[in-house]
Amino acid sequence: MARIKVENVTLHYPIIGAGDRSVKNRLLNFATGGKITRDSGTVVVTGLDQIDLELNDGDRLGLIGHNGAGKSTLLKVLAGIYTPTNGKVEIEGRIVSTLNITLGFEMEATGFENIYLRGRLLGLTTREIEEKLEEISDFTELGKYLDLPVRVYSSGMLMRLAFAVMTSLESDILLMDEVIGTGDARFIHKAEARLNEFMNKAKIMVIASHSDDVIREFCNSALLLKNGTPFARGEIDEVLEIYESEEYQT
Ligand SMILES: Nc1ncnc2c1ncn2[C@@H]1O[C@H](COP(=O)(O)OP(=O)(O)OP(=O)(O)O)[C@@H](O)[C@H]1O
């Protein structure tokens, strides 16, 4: 069983070096981004504001909202990358996230070595990696490049490698932002099939996306954020309609 419980979570980004300029006055009227305030002289962006959320097995939540609404910040809090300023996050189950998918690659190490490094970083034992090695390397179709340092890879080649390792894992909770942007058309098609399989295995999934199609295809409910705060939650079509409404847009 997997579970996510988020209680009254707020996350502030203190902006070091914003100076004395009146950032607040200049930006306050924009609908984009989290709220901007000033705390003892320091400018603070509120990435998330009083979020409550409970997800259990079978839940597939789509996070939607304007640029800077807080979608990625919420994913990062769930992934444990950020600690909330206030509130509580309880996670039961193993998390795999697509955030920063290519981060942590050792540029001087070969593709093969990076499969081991990534695997270890993502919690696999050496034996588990060995068992998956052939399947991962076949999927990348990088052939002899796997013996070369990854610094010589193109961004699409690096993405193939990162994607292959990530999707070879088993996760209880899958956290995703838009991931398969890179790669040629044929690889994207192949990656989609593998991604579907990977997603089907997860017990809980949270996807942040600007694509209605992605939300409709992969999720069974949606959470609409505005300036870091929940604005609507529930059935996908209803929440997407609220997203388009004047009430949300103004
Ligand atoms: N590292 C950071 N430092 C300071 N502020 C940040 C940082 N990351 C995000 N923010 C701020 O937090 C707010 C929420 O950003 P977030 O990236 O979560 O939005 P988002 O909904 O994922 O946006 P988008 O759709 O544009 O990707 C924004 O106002 C953004 O400026």
UniProtKB/TrEMBL annotation:
Domain ABC transporter: 23-250
GO MF entries: ABC-type transporter activity; ATP binding; ATP hydrolysis activity
Keywords, alphabetical: ATP-binding, Nucleotide-binding, Transport
A Pfam family: ABC_tran
SUPFAM superfamilies to which the protein is assigned, alphabetical: P-loop containing nucleoside triphosphate hydrolases
Cellular component, GO, one term: membrane
PROSITE patterns linked to this entry: ABC_TRANSPORTER_1 (PS00211), ABC_TRANSPORTER_2 (PS50893)
PANTHER family: TEICHOIC ACIDS EXPORT ATP-BINDING PROTEIN TAGH
Family: Belongs to the ABC transporter superfamily.
Protein name per UniProt: ABC transporter ATP-binding protein
Organism of provenance: Gimesia benthica
